Structure prediction request, 843 residues.
Amino acid sequence: MSTATTRPSIFHAPWADLLGRFVALLLVFAFFAVMVEDGKFYTPRNLETILRQSAVYATAGLGVTLVIITAGIDLSIGAMIALSVVTVASVLNLGGGGEAATIGASEAQYLVYQYPVLLPIAAVLAGIGAATLAGAVNGSLVVGARLMPFIVTLGTMGVFRGLAKGVSHERDIYPPESTWIGSLMDPTLTSATRGWMILPPGVWILLIGLLATGFLLRYTQLGRHIFAVGSNEETARLCGVRVGRTKLIVYTLCGFFCGVAGLMQFSYGGGIGQPTTAISYELFVIAAVIIGGASFLGGEGSVLGTLIGSLMITILYTGGKMMGWPQWVQEMVIGAIIIAAVALDRLRHRRAT
Amino acid sequence: MRGVVKSFGATRALRGVDITIAPGEVMALVGENGAGKSTLMKVLSGAHQPDGGTMHLDGAPYRPANPLQARAAGVAMIYQELALAPHLSVMENILLGIESTRGPLMNWPAMRARAAAALKQVGLEDVRPDLPLRRLSIAHQQLVEIARAVALDCRVLVLDEPTSSLTRKDIEKLFALIRQLKARGISVVYISHFLEEVREISDRFTVLRDGETVGAGVTKDTPTDRIIALMVGREVAELYPRSARTPGEVLLELDGLAGRGKPESASLGLRRGEVLGIAGLVGAGRTELMRAVFGLDAVRRGRIRIGAHEGAAAPDVRWGQRVGMVSEDRKKEGLAVRLSIADNLTLPRLAGLGPWRLVTPRRQRAACRPWIEKIPIKCAGPQQAVQGLSGGNQQKVAIARLLHADVDVLLLDEPTRGIDVGSKAQIYQLIDELAGQGKAVLMISSYLPELLGTCDRIAVMCRGRLGEARPRADWNEHRLMQAATGQEDS
Prediction:
C-alpha cells in the first residue's frame, strides 16, 4: 500500500506542531501590541503580569496535561487550588497569636514561636500535601470505583471546594505576617532589591516543573505508559502496563501540581487565604491544555503546548481588558478561540492521515 | 429486472474486478481476507468511489455517491459487524432513515405495521416491534438487519460473512430465508470464506485474490479444491513452511481451567518447539481461555503452570515470565494505532533499553530496527504511526512486540485475521522459525487450512470445553468442523 511508504509530512512532526502554536501565540501577542495604545501592552511590567498569571494556569496545567494524555479529565483543579490556598493560610495563621489559632494546640504555638523559620515550610508542605491527597482521592475513585473521570471530578469539585470553605470557616484568612510564600509571585523586573532573580520565583518553579514533567513524559517508562494508556487502554493492559496504577499516579500528580499552583495563587492574590479563589480556573486550564495540542481522546499532549496555551489565554484576557473590551466580549473571544484551535487541529489531522 | 453487470478497474485494493449477478441468483464472492472483498463492498455501497471501471444496475449506469443513494437504488449491505442501534426499538432500527411521519411527528401505528410486515418476511413474526434491539440474540439482530433491507424493497442484498457468529441452527434458518428472497427475484451476493456454506447456498461463485477476479463458475460444477487453489493462488505446501521441530519440556500446562462464564474446562500441555492450535466456532470460548491464561480475564478454577510459575497472574507478571500475547482485535486491543511503531513495539519491555532505565526515543527506535528489517515490516521508519500501515504490517508490529520482549511462550489469537496473503506467508514463516528455535506457540484460528498447515497438534473448543489435543495427521477440515459443532461421534 502506498500509505506504508510515504513519509509523514514534516508539518506533522511534533516540533513543527509546537512551532505552529508558538507562531499563533506571537500573532495574538503582536495584535495586542499594535492595538493597545502607547505600547502599554509590551511594557516590562505588563509582560511580567502576564507571566505571573500564566504561571498559575500553566503549573496546574502540567498536571492536567498528564491527566488528559491518559484520556481522563480533572474538573476539580480550581477547588484543589483553593484547598491548597486556604491550607497554606491556615497554617501560617498558627503563628498569629491567640485568637487566630483556632486549631489551638499550644504545642504548635510553642513550636512556631521557637522556630519561626519552620512555619512557612510547614505551610507549603501542608498546602501541597492537601491538594496531592485530594488528587489521590480523585485517582482512587476513577481507578477503584471504575467511575468516569468526568463524573468523579465533577463531584469532587464540589467536595473540595466545600472542604476549602470549611477549613476557612467560609471567611477569608488573613495571615498575620507576610512570609516568603506571599512574595513568590511578586514582581522582580521592576524591583530594586529582587532584580537579580530576573523572573519571580513562582515562574522559576513553573519552569522547573515544566522540565521535570517534560522529562517524565519523554524519557521514562512511566511517561511512555501514560501515553500508551491514553492512546489505547486495552493495548496498554495487554502489554503489561499496570493501567490502574498509572492513572492513580497521574491524578495524584495533578493534585500535586494544583497544590503548587495554589502557593502561587496565594501569593498572586496578595497573601490572603480566600476559599472562593480560583473559581472556574478548571475551564481556563483545560482550555490552555487543549489549545496546547492535547486531545480529549488521549494519547496526545505536551507540556510546552500547555505553556503556550496558558500564555495564550492570559494574553487574550489581559489584552482584552487593556483594549477596554467588556467582560462579555472577552469571554466570547476566548470561547471562540478554543473552538477554532480544536477545529484547526482536526483539519490538520485529517490531512495527515 | 435484467441482469446486473458490474465491473471495476480500481487501483490498489481493487485491480480489476468483474462480477455479474442475475436476478434471483445467489452469487458467492470468495477470497482470502485482504483479497479486496471489503473494498468491493464499500464501492458497491457507495462508501468509496471507484477510480475506474463501470457498474450497471438493471442496464442503467449505477454510480452511488454515498450509501444513501445506493440504498435508494435498491442495493443493501449487511456487514459482518452489525450496524444497528442497540438502544432503539426493533421497528426504529428497521425503518431508520425511512420513518413514517405525520409532519414532524412520528406515525407510530404506521411504523409498527410496516416493521411487522418486514419482520414477517424474515420469519421473525414473534418479535415485538417495540422491543429494544439489544434484548434480541445476535442471530435475531442480524435478521432485523435483513428486515431493514426488505423494508427498503431492495433488489440486491450483499451479506458479508453472515454466519461468522451464528450457530448451525441459525445458519439453517438464514439459508432458508436467503432461498425465499431468491425466489422473490432478489439477487444475493454472499461473501464468505467458508466453502462448505458457499457450496450449500450459492448458484455461482466468483473468486477474488489481491484485488482481482481470478476465477468464476457454477458452484455445483466446480470441485472445492479448485476453488481453494484459486483463492490461495499457490500450493498449500509452499504457504506453510515446516522445518524440523523437536518438542522439548512442557512450558505451559493447564488443568481444568475455568473462567467467569467461558472457558468451562480446559486442559492442555504446550511444549517447547511446538505449535499447538485451538480450533472452534466464534463464541466457543477460545479467546476467553487465552485471556484467562494471560491474566486479562478472571480465573475461577483450575491450574495454570508456566515454566516454574504456578497460578493465575496479571499481564505485567506474565510478560516477566516470558509469555506474550497477540490480540485477535488489532484496532481495539492489539495496537495503539495513533502511537508510533517504536512505541507499540517496545511497550512491554521499556526498561533496559539503555543505562539508567531511561527510555529515549532514539533507544526505542534502535530497538525496533532489527525487527523491522528481519520480519520485515514495510514502513517509513520506526517513528511512523501504526495507523498508516497496512493491516498485515500492523499485525507484524503486534507480533514483533513479542520478539522484542524475548518471550518463550507465544499466545497468538487469530494472528492472520484480515491481512493479505503475502503477510500471512511471512507470519507462517516466522511461526515456523520460532518453533524451530524452541519457543512454544499456542495459536487460535478460525481458518482451518491455516491450523492444519502450521500446527503440530490441534485441540478443538466447543461450548467452553477444550477437547484433547491430537496430532494434526488425525484431523482434517471436516473432522475439525464436526468437533467444533459438537457432532463428534465417540
